[in-house]
Design brief:
The protein starts with a helix and ends in a 13-residue tail after the last helix. A hairpin with a 2-residue loop joins strand 1 (159-162) and strand 2 (165-167). The longest helix is centred in the C-terminal third of the chain and has 37 residues, at 342-378. The protein has 432 residues and is mainly alpha-helical. The protein has one domain (3-419). It has helices at 3-30, 43-55, 63-81, 87-110, 113-139, 176-194, 201-218, 221-238, 244-263, 269-285, 288-306, 324-331, 342-378, 383-397, 403-419, and strands at residues 159-162, 165-167. It has a two-stranded antiparallel sheet with strand order 1-2.
């Protein structure tokens, strides 16, 4: 690859990154009249990256990537002839397989570990004003400008949280973007605590505070559980270092002191109370912690195979039908026309054959990346492992039906692959 192509592709990846984070702000505050077309604002960048990768002879040649692209084209025809019959809905759904998935691997080929660290520094800088923004949104009414919804919707972009307080959307179109962003940021926060020499100390401290503040302020149980998982990955990475037990005791003691001081900050008491109420109430409604885990994780996996409509089991209801855009075009409203769970949506849209192939791709990709990240950690490169703290579930069964979820899936997958490469040349290829 020539240096000019390399630079232009890196710049395109950075643009993809910034549009992922600020696309909701464009749709809500800056260009509300273009809210609908801006849903696809990252697609031209993805197409450009595919074109440049093809010209540079680094387009992914994996049989699995080729199969996923083929499934995307086949799914358009099955949706038109045996499914919902709407060409635009089918095209919107199929673009995930035809455009976005290949870009994940292109990102991994173009970037290396040093590039991925630079993304981490940018994420830490962004996390600080993001935490301030969601705090302002938390305390502001839904009619306030800062909470304005997509396309000048003055009903607000917040989502029901606890009592009179709504889950804030940050710069995103929907509240899931905040959970994804701070989960993503949390990986870097803990990575830089493992390697504090790589970052400015004041930035790391400020980003750590922003990450902790985001958990109660977001009123998001998903972010809380993700933080626990990331911390577990951090401890695992720390276990490879000398004096592990001594270090863990220091970490636990420091965390207790930090959380004690944090709980005494008066202006945060409201966020903490709202989060605690949301956590308790929602868990009781869903049968406690076990119910949440079974319904949201295991239930989604098992239910995707057992809750299939026999009339549409082979070809499915049509790709794109389970997305928000598909629901709007087909039913005139946002709804779960297929399934709320990602795997259930895939099986319901694409049918038992193509759906299982897509799920198999995600399983193989997840464990391929996990294996390589684990080996890299044991060889002294902790970055892929720490990113996997968020990336594992996102790659395994994170949503593709919502633009923010899809964007973070592509970004975190590409960054993990890029982080596996410690050289300055092109990264190694992941097998899937």
């Amino acid at each position: 690859m020539d240096i000019q192509s390399y630079k232009s592709m890196k710049n395109a990846i950075w643009l993809f990154f910034y549009l992922l984070i600020f696309e909701g702000g464009l749709r809500r505050w800056i260009l509300p009249g273009l809210a609908t077309p801006l849903l696809l604002v990252r697609d031209p960048i993805a197409i450009y990256l595919m074109y440049k990768a093809y010209r540079a002879s680094i387009f992914p040649k994996s049989i699995w990537v080729s199969l996923i692209i083929l499934i995307g084209f086949i799914s358009i025809f099955t949706a038109l002839y045996w499914g919902h019959g709407n060409f635009f809905v089918a095209l919107f759904g199929a673009r995930v397989l035809i455009i976005q998935i290949p870009v994940l691997f292109i990102i991994g080929k173009v970037l290396n570990k040093n590039d991925v660290i630079k993304f981490g520094e940018a994420v830490l800088w962004i996390s600080i004003p993001m935490a301030i923004l969601i705090t302002i949104q938390f305390y502001s009414p839904q009619t306030a400008w800062v909470n304005k919804g997509v396309g000048n919707d003055m009903n607000g972009a917040g989502f029901s949280g606890s009592g009179e307080y709504f889950r804030p959307p940050g710069t995103f179109s929907f509240i899931t973007g905040v959970s994804s962003f701070f989960s993503f940021a949390g990986c870097y926060v803990f990575y830089f605590w493992l390697n504090p020499h790589l970052i400015k100390k004041y930035l790391l401290f400020a980003a750590t505070i922003a990450f902790v503040v985001s958990i109660p302020t977001s009123i998001s149980r998903s972010l809380f559980f993700q933080a626990v998982i990331i911390f577990s990955f951090f401890l695992w990475a720390k276990s490879n270092e000398p004096d592990f037990l001594k270090n863990v005791l220091q970490i636990v003691f420091g965390a207790i002191i930090f959380l004690f001081i944090f709980s005494k900050v008066t202006f945060l008491n409201t966020q903490i109370d709202a989060f605690t109420d949301r956590f308790t109430t929602a868990n009781e409604q869903e049968g406690g912690l076990n119910g949440v885990f079974i319904d949201r994780f295991l239930g989604g996996l098992i239910g995707s195979f057992v809750n299939i409509d026999d009339a549409h089991s082979f070809f499915g209801l049509g790709i794109g039908m389970g997305t928000n855009v598909g629901a709007q075009l087909l039913a005139g409203k946002t709804a779960f026309l297929v399934s709320e769970g990602e795997w259930g949506r895939v099986i319901g849209e694409s049918g038992i054959v193509l759906g299982i192939l897509i799920i198999l791709f995600r399983i193989i990709m997840t464990f391929e990346i996990t294996s390589k990240a684990f080996k890299a950690m044991n060889n002294g490169n902790q970055l892929p492992w720490m990113l996997l703290g968020y990336g594992f579930l996102q790659i395994f069964q994170g949503t593709w039906s919502q633009p923010n979820g899809l964007g973070f899936y592509v970004l975190i997958g590409g960054l993990i692959i890029g982080a596996l490469n410690t050289k300055t040349n092109l990264p190694q290829k992941i097998a899937v």
